[in-house]
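Sequence and structure are kept together here, with a separate record for every protein. An example record follows, reproduced without changes.
>
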Amino acid sequence: DKVRAEGPSYLVLLHDEIARVTGDRRDIANRFALLFRAVAAQEIDANGRQPFSGDETYRTAMPIAHGYAIDEQFTVGFSSLDSSVLLAVAAERLADHATELGLATQAQALGDLAAQARSAAETYYRASDGGYLPYVDPNSGLATRLFEDASFKPAWTGFLDGDLARGRASVRALWDALAN
C-alpha cells in the first residue's frame, strides 16, 4: 500500500528540490525513468482520485478529530487530498524537467497526469470557503471539516503557486477552522 500513492511523489519532489537548490540536474536526467515511473505508476481511480498510502503522519490524530475509530487508516475506500496534490505537483515539476531534457512525449504524459490530479483535487476536495478537505469518505462523501496537516498541503507544496487569492483563501479557511 505504501507505494500506490503519495510516497512516490516525494521521490520526484526531493530530486526537483535538490536540482533547484544546487542547479545540478544530472540526477534527474540519470534517473528520469525511475522518476517517471514514480509518478506514472501510482494508483488513480476512474474519477482521478488517489488512495491514502497508510503511512501518513496524522493517521492517528485525524480519525479521532473526525469521529472515526482510532485505528481507522483511511486505506480502504477513502481517497486522499494529500496524494492528489503531491501527484499534481510532482508530475508538473517532472514535466518541466522532461521538456528541458527534450522528452516531449513524457512531458505531455506528465502534463496530462498533473492536470488529472489537479482536477480531482479541485473537484472533490476543495470546500466552498476555499479550504481543502482531507479525504473523500466512501460512505458519506466528503469530509465535513478541514484537518491541519492535509488541508495545509496545497499551500506548502506549491500546488497553489501562481494564484495568491486561492492560496490566501485556503490558508485563511484552515486558520479559521483551527481558531474555532
Residues 138 and 160 are 26 Å apart (CA to CA). The helical segments are 7-22, 26-30, 32-40, 61-65, 81-100, 104-125, 148-156, 164-179.
